[in-house]
Write a sequence for this structure.
């Protein structure tokens, strides 16, 4: 069965500092992995998708995610946080088989302080 | 403008009264999904569709029905709503080309079942 864990309910970071939002996953076989962002009152947006290949995936708004197969992790990163990055972030996994079924984590709320 | 529209945006109903939430996309995408968002549980996929007349269960399909009679529309049907279906619902459409994927979300439908 597929599962996703986002171990931190909340992450606090100062503006200008690097940020990391953690995600670990469990899936049979190779995974597709995703990050999404939900800004306050602005709906959901797709950030990036990992497919087999480079372990560092670049996405929208300067975000990137690092895939680590041995640790079954897919952490979201940004070198320099902005106050406007404050939002709710979701990690998700989809197996190569099983159609389009996608499992999401519970979400991590990021607060960036000026 | 590329968009996913949902109607209604807000709905208050009573237990057992059938309702339909419409979803429409103007991008000719093959893939469409429905999700619900609940505090502490993140996003959960209800149903997805990989093309016209091709639908399948997501993570939490109980109590819901969908249909995909034409490519642009993917309505979510609650035959007999119950209070535990009170939630924020999102529709999404996706295009997948050589594993690269872009997803668009609708603005959400907030449903209250009394």
């Amino acid at each position: 069965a597929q599962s996703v864990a986002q171990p931190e309910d909340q992450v606090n970071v100062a503006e200008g500092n690097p940020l990391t939002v953690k995600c670990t996953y469990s899936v049979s076989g190779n995974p597709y992995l995703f990050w999404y962002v939900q800004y306050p009152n602005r709906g959901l947006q797709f950030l990036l998708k990992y497919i087999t290949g480079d372990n560092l995936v670049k996405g929208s708004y300067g975000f990137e995610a690092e895939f680590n197969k041995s640790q079954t992790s897919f952490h979201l990163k940004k070198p320099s946080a902005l106050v406007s990055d404050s939002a709710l972030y979701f990690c998700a996994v989809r197996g190569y088989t099983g159609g389009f079924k996608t499992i999401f984590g519970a979400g991590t709320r990021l607060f960036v302080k000026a | 403008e590329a968009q996913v529209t949902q109607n209604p945006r807000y709905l208050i109903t009573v237990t057992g009264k059938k309702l339909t939430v419409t979803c429409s996309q103007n991008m000719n995408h093959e893939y469409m999904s429905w999700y619900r968002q609940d505090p502490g549980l993140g996003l959960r996929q209800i149903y997805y569709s990989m093309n016209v007349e091709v639908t399948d269960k997501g993570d939490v399909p109980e109590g819901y029905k969908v249909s995909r009679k034409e490519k642009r529309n993917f309505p979510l049907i609650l035959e007999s709503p119950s209070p535990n279906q009170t939630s924020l619902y999102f529709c999404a459409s996706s295009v997948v080309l050589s594993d690269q994927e872009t997803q668009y979300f609708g603005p959400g439908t907030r449903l209250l079942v009394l």
Remarks:
- The mean pLDDT of chain A is 93.
- Chain A is about 0% helix and 55% strand.
- The first strand of chain A starts at residue 3 and ends at 5.
- Chain A touches chain B through 21 residues (CB under 8 Å).
